[in-house]
Write a structure and sequence with these properties.
161 residues; 2 domains; 6 strands
Length: 161
């Protein structure tokens, strides 16, 4: 992978000037390369990794990993049914995987009920879906290569007499 892409993947906030210094290139060259990557679709989006333990208005958001077993469509394979599944607004990611299941779908909802309703009413009843296995995320330790530090809780000092 190109060095510019590697730098931006690690730190999407790296400035053109900083990247140019690291690579010993002119800022205009770097800026031109970044624009080209954006136009070609190599760079799709710049993203911040948020540690939601530190967000004060944190709502009880639930994330689930759902393994989906599907019947591939003739002449279309897995792509058409995957497209149908990833089009749902609850779906944040969708991957074709090897193993017992065919797709790994990441779903987010306001609570367990929202996610389980999605599975029962939208996902499981699709024509080409043969089965699902849902795994709810209980705690995040690391995301997108970033270790998420936990918010320190008020710890009471044990008093003994």
């Amino acid at each position: 992978m190109d060095e510019i892409l590697e730098i931006l993947e690690k730190d999407g906030r790296a400035s053109v000037e900083d990247i140019a210094k690291m690579m010993r290139k002119k800022p205009d060259e770097v800026k031109k390369a970044i624009k080209k990557y954006e136009k070609e679709g190599a760079i799709l989006k710049y993203k911040a990794v948020i540690n939601k333990d530190f967000v004060k208005d944190n709502e009880s958001e639930v994330r689930a990993l759902i393994e989906v077993n599907i019947v591939p469509q003739k002449d279309l394979g897995f792509d058409k049914i995957a497209e149908r599944i990833y089009s749902f607004p609850e779906v944040t990611s969708c991957y074709l995987i090897s193993g017992t299941y065919d797709l790994l779908v990441v779903v987010e909802g306001k609570n367990l009920h929202t996610v389980s309703n999605f599975v029962a009413e939208k996902l499981s009843c699709l024509e080409n879906v043969r089965g699902t296995a849902t795994h709810f995320l209980l705690k995040k330790y690391k995301e997108d290569g970033v270790i998420l530090k936990r918010k320190s809780e008020n710890q009471r000092i044990a008093i003994s007499y």
